[in-house]
Design goal:
Blueprint: E1 2-8, H1 10-13, H2 23-38, E2 43-49, H3 55-69, E3 76-81, E4 89-90, E5 93-94, H4 98-114, E6 118-122, H5 144-161, E7 164-166, H6 169-173, H7 176-179, H8 189-206
Parallel strand pairs: 1-2, 1-3, 3-6, 6-7
Antiparallel strand pairs: 4-5
Helix pairs in contact: 2-8, 3-4, 4-5
Length: about 210
């Protein structure tokens, strides 16, 4: 039995999707239906998203939680969806500077690859225009320029390690105001449907689902 283990922040957790609980849980529902109704191979989906988490949190828990959920036949795919919190600037400092962000993800990718897992990175979704460079209710500042810098790191890591990269920024950005909640950061149900479509199509193309 294969597994898909989704690590990330609140966007992975899907907390703002009042319809289906986020893109990861939509994938889970799809794969359960395929197993039950069509007799396809069972693929377990684990949503390991934690609201507010950065890659500093990931590095503390990844190895244990991956090993706990690793499939018996080691047919595992690990998804990493981080950056929206790491790149936030508060009191003049990023929550996780870009060098530490790179190192945290590198260590996690290397561990997963050593254990024989497939690895897929998901880049950072855009923010609403009204939030660009403006402090939010938590006094954290995000801007599109910084999102591009962190997304460039993800692209470089995908090339360095030969792992998958799913670009959700580009399709999301085309009509981002329609896909975001009032806070300008989190995807709404329509946004999660778009993320689900992009991520699941990419996973199918990679042959992981």
């Amino acid at each position: 039995m294969a597994s898909i283990i989704c690590f990330g922040d609140s966007i992975t957790r899907g907390e703002s999707d009042v319809v289906y609980g986020g893109w990861a849980d939509r994938i889970k529902t799809r794969l359960i239906k395929q197993f039950v109704e069509m007799g396809k191979d069972r693929i377990s989906v684990f949503n390991m998203g934690i609201s507010g988490e950065t890659t500093n949190g990931l590095i503390q828990r990844f190895e244990h939680e991956f090993m706990t959920r690793q499939a018996a036949d080691k047919q595992d795919t690990v998804l990493f969806g981080y950056g929206a919190n790491d790149l936030a600037c508060q009191d003049g400092e990023y929550l996780v500077d870009i060098n530490t962000y790179t190192d945290n993800l590198s260590r996690s990718i290397e561990f997963a690859l050593e254990k024989g897992a497939n690895v897929v990175l998901i880049n950072v979704t855009p923010i609403a225009a009204k939030l660009d460079g403006v402090p939010n209710v938590n006094n954290r500042i995000r801007n599109d320029e910084t999102i591009h810098r962190y997304n460039q790191v993800l692209h470089a890591l995908s090339l360095k390690y030969g792992v998958g990269l799913i670009d959700v920024y580009s399709p999301f950005n085309d009509s981002k105001e329609e896909y975001l909640t009032a806070d300008g950061l989190h995807p709404n149900s329509a946004g999660h449907e778009l993320l689900y479509q992009v991520v699941s199509t990419s996973l199918s193309a990679y042959g992981y689902i």
